[in-house]
Each structure stands twice: as structure tokens, then as C-alpha cells.
Amino acid sequence: MPVDPLHSAPRTQRAAPSPGGPSTEGAPTAAGTDAVEVRRSARRRRTVSAYREGDRTVVLIPARMSDAEEKRWVGVMLDRLAAQESKRILGDAELAERAGRLSAQYLDGRARPATVRWVTNQNTRWGSCTPAEGSIRLSHRLKGMPEYVVDYVLLHELAHLLVPGHGPAFWRLLEAYPRTERARGYLEGVVAAGRLPHLPAARSE
After folding, report:
1. Rounded to whole angstroms, how far apart are CA atoms 10 and 193?
2. Closest Cα partner for 29 from 197, 147, 152, 193?
3. What is the 3-state secondary structure (H, E, C) of 30-77?
4. First-to-last CA distance in the chain?
5. Which segments carry the region annotation Disordered (predicted)?
6. Which long-range contacts (CB under 8 A, 24 or more apart) does 52-60 make?
């Protein structure tokens, strides 16, 4: 997989928490840039949980958890919540409409697919496209994943309608999308967790 030169979505600096006390971390969620409050508990031994509270997300973790573990679990729980909240599955027509909006927002409307649809026979990649036909296909395995992940795969294939390979020109097309690295990390995490076989980067046909 080629190196993605994009930056992670911006995060505000987290203040060091007092022992056993809460810490607040500004981290983007799938719905926007809601704040994240991390609450440490000496009574909590191993479990981690999270819930929405107004315009912020509260993540509950054991007090002994390291800063690195806290950062990793905050990301995991944000993605789990986003997946749970993304219950409405887009149909093919809605998927095509979404692709049109993404093209207009990030590619100046230059990518104009003729068809965009879900497929169930695509188990070795997340998405594919045929530039000559202007067709884009997304694996049904993406259904139920956070919207920003589906958007990334859509945008990835839209970019392939303009640039077939994964060279610098291709990745420059995706620079405007702020969640490329986060989406790639989510998909790589799914593979690493063993829920799916190893899937290579989406590619053109």
C-alpha cells in the first residue's frame, strides 16, 4: 500500500489528568468535531465504555491505563459509537448521490461516475472502479461502518476515475479530505482484528 502523505485530523492538546480524575480531549468524531471527555476510575479494572452526553462523548477507562492506551481506546470507542449510530444503510441511489456530493466538495465536480452501487462479490478489496465505464463498486462489507469510512472509499474510487494509479498525483486529489488517515487506520484495524481477510488498497480495473 502506498504511503498516504495526508495529515491526521486536527486534535487539540489534552491536558494531563489528575490521578483518578477526568481528562478532556478534543477529538473529531464521525459526526463532527465534538469534544471527548475521558473519565478515569480506580474501580474500573479492565472494561472501557463510551456514550454521548450532549455535544460531547464520554469515554470511561481504568485509572491505571497509560496515556498511549487511553489514546488508542478513545479512537476505538469513537469508531464503535459511530458504527452503532450509522444504522441506516445507504441504497445504491443514495450512494450515487453521496458520491456526487463528495466529487463536488473535494474534486471540483470533475469525477462524474455513471453508476455507483454495492456489490456482494467483492471480498478482496473495499472498492473498485472501471474508468472506461465510469462505474464504481463498493464492497457490502463496508455497510454499517462509520460514514467517514464509506466516504473515504467512495472518494478514493472517484479519484481513480481521474487518475488510475496510486502515484503522487492520485494522493494529491485526496489531500482536501481531512479523514483519509483516520479512515485508512479504521480499515487496517478491521483487517488486523481478523474480522476480514487481508484486503489490498482499492484499485481500478
Report:
1. 26
2. 147
3. CCECCEEEEEEECCCCCCCEEEEECCEEEEEEECCCCHHHHHHHHHHH
4. 17
5. 1-41
6. 52/81, 57/29, 57/81
Tell me, what DSSP letter sits at residue 202? Answer: P
Distance CA 11, CA 185 (A): 16
pLDDT in tens, 23-42: 433 333 333 345 889 999 88
> What Å distances lie between residue 49 and 38, 45, 73, 186, CA to CA?
10, 12, 9, 18
Count each helix (H run) and each strand (E run) in the chain, helices first: 5, 8
Residue 180 is which amino acid?
T
Cell of 68: 498511549
Q: Can you identify the CATH homologous superfamily of domain 92-204?
A: Metalloproteases ("zincins"), catalytic domain (3.30.2010.10)
The C-alpha cell that represents 39 in the structure block: 473519565
Say which residue the cell 474501580 belongs to: 43
In this predicted model, what pLDDT tens digit does every residue of 84-114 receive, in sequence order?
765 556 788 888 999 999 999 999 999 999 9
Q: How far apart are CA 133 and CA 194, in angstroms?
A: 34
